[in-house]
Amino acid sequence: MSLRLAAYAVCTEGGRVLLARHVSPRGESNWTLPGGRVEHAEDPLDAVIREVAEETGCDAVVERLLGVDSRVIPAAERTVPGGPELQNVGVFYRVRITGGRLRPEPNGETAEAVWTPVPDVAHLRRSSLVDVGLALARTLPATGHVASVPVGGLIQH
Q: How big, in percent rounded to 5, are the helix, strand and coil portions of the chain?
């Protein structure tokens, strides 16, 4: 099993959430929260600010820690064929955009970043991370943990 530590931004404003459309090397597309891998020796708080800038073109500040999600993605369900199962540990932050302009990620896998009305999220092909992040932001659980989101249909790993 491999392990991935990642940091994700939950940025909501006026009933909308900032989403990024990720396109895999195989051309498959789904919506996710801005965020990604925490680099070696990088603080997750710094990582989420860096990832928002890279993926959306926007400057951001962290307002608060929302929680942590841990999930195991079976090898057969990974987007990278032939890899082992993956444990993804995601640190979720409520983030506020302070400047910049939305744009695609230069030379990256984020094709676009858009403000999406929260009710419209249910109709998008998306990462389960979107649902986890929105649940954490909505409920602010004292434990920093929400129930697992079932994967299937429009909800992907």
A: 20, 45, 35
What tokens does 69 get? Answer: 């999600």
DSSP per-residue string spanning 62-97: EEEEEEEEEEEE-GGG-SSTTPPPEEEEEEEEEEEE
- Specify which residues 70 forms β-bridges with: 89
Burial of 26 (C-beta count, 10 Å sphere; 0-12/13-18/19+): exposed
CATH number at residue 58: 3.90.79.10
> What pTM does this model have?
0.95
One digit per residue, pLDDT tens: the chain, 157 residues? Answer: 999 999 999 999 999 999 999 998 888 899 999 999 999 999 999 999 999 999 999 999 999 999 999 999 888 888 777 889 999 999 999 999 999 999 999 988 999 999 999 999 999 999 999 999 999 999 999 999 999 899 999 999 8
Q: How many domains is the chain partitioned into structurally?
A: 1
Which structural domain range is residue 102 located in?
Answer: 2-156
d(CA 107, CA 118): 28
